[in-house]
Amino acid sequence: MPTLLIVIASTRPGRVGLPVAQWFEQFSRQHGAFQVQVADLLVLNLPMMDEPHHPRFAQYTKPHTKEWSRIVDSSDAVVLVMPEYNYAMTAPLKNALDYLYQEWHYKPVGLVSYGGPSGGMRAAQMVKQVVTTLKMMPIPESVAIPFVTQYLHDGIFEPPDMIQQAAQAMLDELVKWANALEPLRAAQRQMR
Hints:
The longest helix is centred in the last third of the chain and has 20 residues, at 161-180. The chain has one domain: 3-Layer(aba) Sandwich (Rossmann fold). It is α/β, with parallel strands linked by helices. It has helices at residues 17-31, 41-44, 63-73, 91-99, 121-133, 161-180, 182-191; strands at residues 3-8, 35-40, 77-83, 108-114, 137-138, 143-145, 152-153, 156-157. The strands form two sheets. Strands 1, 2, 3, 4, 5 and 6 form a six-stranded parallel beta sheet that branches. Strands 7-8 form a two-stranded antiparallel ribbon. The mean pLDDT is 96.
């Protein structure tokens, strides 16, 4: 069974991303096609790019980078739970992506974006440019949550059916891509 890594991209106090990610984690576990792990960028607390070597060499010197490398490398697919800040992804998400290189290769990536009227779609479009450079495959199916706070009740995210249907479609597609790209990931790991 492939492993799905859910990355919580917001680190802001009082963030909406935590309840959205908690819902998506539970939804993914119920979906049943993946082993699920969660990486919270607030907990990881990666400093701003403090490694002396380019990530492509994987010559990490810091314990936090080695741990982040281990987490990402052990996954077969990734979902980014991400808000939109000023039409863009969060700085902690960009930093976390830039920390590594080979570990991201040949993994499909799904996007759960949220925000105001756009549902985070401008940030989602921006992140696609970055992940393709990391040899990831952003899948077309996504979950965009406009006016996200309307679905929060006592700190719990309660999405309508259309958002749950989008999550189902995205997970169905992610598992297909995770399985299809497995030979490339296996070859990549053997070359290291």
